[in-house]
Amino acid sequence: MQVYKKLDIITNKHPLKERDGITHHVMDHVNWNEEYFIHRFSKEANNAIEDIHSRGKIPIIIGGTHYYLQNLLFKNKTVGENINNSKVTRELTKDDVELLDGPVAKMFDKLRQIDPIIAEKFHPEDKRKLRRALEIYMTTGQKPSEIYHEQKLDELEDTSLRYNTLLFWVYSDPEILKDRLDKRVDNMMELGALDEINELYEFYRAQVPVPDCTTGIWQVIGFKEFLPWLESTGSLNKEESSRWFNQGVDRMKIRTRQYAKYQVKWIKKLLAVELNKEARFNFKYGGKLYLLDASDLGSWNEKVREVGLSIANQFLTTGPSSVTHVQAPEHLQDIFPDNSFLDNINSNKKLGSEKNWKHYECKVCKDKQGKNLIAVGEENWQIHLKSRRHKRQLGSGERKRKHEQMINQYKKLTPTSEDSLYI
């Protein structure tokens, strides 16, 4: 979200006064009415890295949008990512473009016809990934699942890292982080986030058709959470308006905490899996992840800054495979993904994982479109089955069944008008 212009507060851009004159790249340059895609980010970020290298400097990549970071740090992590012009055998036709720009349901049906294996990898509503998979097939004539398999074979031959890479996980205890994130939202409000939200809402109202809040700038945490309040302004009294606004703040805090949990999950189950593959090359290109404990900000210099600088100095002066520091402090070893965890994890990032790609349809839970909810993969399906949402729906269904059963029993015990003639 920080690639979009303005909105410095709700996108949490690093304040200019704290940057110490250090240039920040790939930030604050995209208009609000533009969608920003991963391929554009990868091109812009790689150009920035090449420019920094050309000046003899070390690029530092900071971020939390992990799908984008993974594409930047690794080769071949999105299907057909490195398809070059020699593989492109035809241009997109008018009918092709019409399908790619059309309803997501038609795209999914088409992909399921041409490549049922890859279709199981993506959610039926994931328009971007479905579109890309179809585009690959249309321009190359090769099934995306075959390309994916080739990419996984390439990983056995050489590193997947684009650059010699040193990674830090700036970690905080979850309970401490929860309070820290809540306070950050409150601080945003005090700094003037509401002015940014109102400005963005005025732009939103002027768009025809009304934008989809699952794309572009409209995904930013701090806008859609306030939409119910923004759209009701003028129809609420002062007390109601205050209550609805506070509900927006609460939703923003919840979404921020959820996103933080998702980031930790990505580190453990996606990033760590990819980095573990570098062990076969003895981490000669880097790829080790070092955890720095930022739970106590009073100990920042000792536990984060000094440790991080020491690791970085070793990495840069004696090479990626020569760092002697442990990857995590002793008291945090249990949350750090070890080899046993990584070797046994059920990941769709490993060779042969396509055998486990599968859609699971829940008969009791609905998605935002009112359709039966779809979970992609066994792990996500098990998470859904254990979720409060699913259990609540099951309980509701069971209560409804018992209620209908009781009504039917009552009907059997109650004489009809025809029966009353014989009483």
Automatic annotation (TrEMBL):
Its EC number is 2.5.1.75. It catalyses: adenosine(37) in tRNA + dimethylallyl diphosphate = N(6)-dimethylallyladenosine(37) in tRNA + diphosphate. Residues 387-403 have a biased composition (Basic residues). Keywords: ATP-binding, Cytoplasm, Nucleotide-binding, Transferase, tRNA processing. Transmembrane segments: none annotated. InterPro entries: Dimethylallyltransferase, IPP_transferase_euk, IPT, P-loop_NTPase. GO terms for molecular function: ATP binding; tRNA dimethylallyltransferase activity. It comes from the Eukaryota. Residues 414-423 have a biased composition (Polar residues). Catalyzes the transfer of a dimethylallyl group onto the adenine at position 37. Belongs to the IPP transferase family. This is tRNA dimethylallyltransferase. It comes from Debaryomyces fabryi. The lineage of its organism: Eukaryota, Fungi, Dikarya, Ascomycota, Saccharomycotina.
